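Example 3.2
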Amino acid sequence: MDTIAAVPSRFQFGCHKVLHLIRDQWKQVCASGQLKEIEVVITSPMSRTLQTAVGIFHGEDQPDRLDVTSFEDEKVKGDDETSTFNRPPIIAYELCRERMGKYECDRRGTISQYRSRFPEVDFSLIENEDDILWKADERETHEEVMARAMKFIKWLWERQEKEIAVVSHGVFLDQTMIELFKNNKCSPLNDYDPHSRFRNCEIRSVKVFNESVMGLGSDSFSNHCGRIRIPYGLEVVQIRDSTKDNVSVEELEVTN
């Protein structure tokens, strides 16, 4: 894969968060070992992302579930006594769902069905039982997806957590990256082409600074300063979910 060197950001100092954006293939994500300090998981309310979020952080494949503690529990332990796995709260949120309209694979089920299937997930932020955002005769434009992605990033920034996992979809994450890389709003932490589509299980990381988020047009932001793993930055990790290369989300047969 063609790569580009990391470009130094204009914003070298300031408040930050650590954010992981994830696309399915949860077994490979777990094996990467990058998600041990997540404080909260924000997931799209689609079955494929709900399965990924629960599989990564509350999965049955993890050893003895009784021995697994949350990030908050782990912080109060001594250095010699830490948990191998992390079980942060999982919250479903509509803003980070896939591009909406026309295709049934991007239409979510009812919240009552999801609550029954995924009791580990908090659905309290979703107002409507049925999917009123999806329209059979109208497809969301890329510009609308990008605007929604930036609204979502602003919402994340106002949360109190410093390290957040976001489980979402290809088009949504692609539009997020396009906007963040405009005008040097962020800088990559490893070598990759930020404009290319993701391969299966690929992980990409970038730093996004408080000043960058402020530049997206928010009227006000809480100053959640701190130093969590990545100094002065917001780390973004994306992982491709499709088992088919070079196939758009619209072409996939997925049950929601």
